[in-house]
Amino acid sequence: MMDNSVNILDDIEYEIIDLLQNLNVPRTEAICIVCLLGGDELTSQTIEHTSGLRQPEVSVAMRPLRERGWIIERDEKKTNGKGRPVKHYKLTVQLKTIVETFESEIRKQNEEMMDSINRLRELKSR
Asked: What are the structural domain ranges in the chain?
């Protein structure tokens, strides 16, 4: 179902955006994730109006989300047949899954860094 109403992000949603950014998620991606958390399929235009992002920012932010398999994208031809199709986006995972993905990635990075630190210690003690 398409929702063309304009919503304003609340304090909790802004906090989620900030926390995602703390995990090195680009701002525009974090905003798009938050816009889609309600579970509805939204048009690019609805996301633009809700978030204050411009159309190119929404398109660029959706690419990595699509590559991760977190969203589905659907094109709808305009009724008058002119212009570009309208993009529709829907989040396919819950925030819990997104958080678990970042947690796993960060744990792996930390393990790799600790391995490097330990190896440096070994080399220094020779």
From this structure: 1-93, 94-126
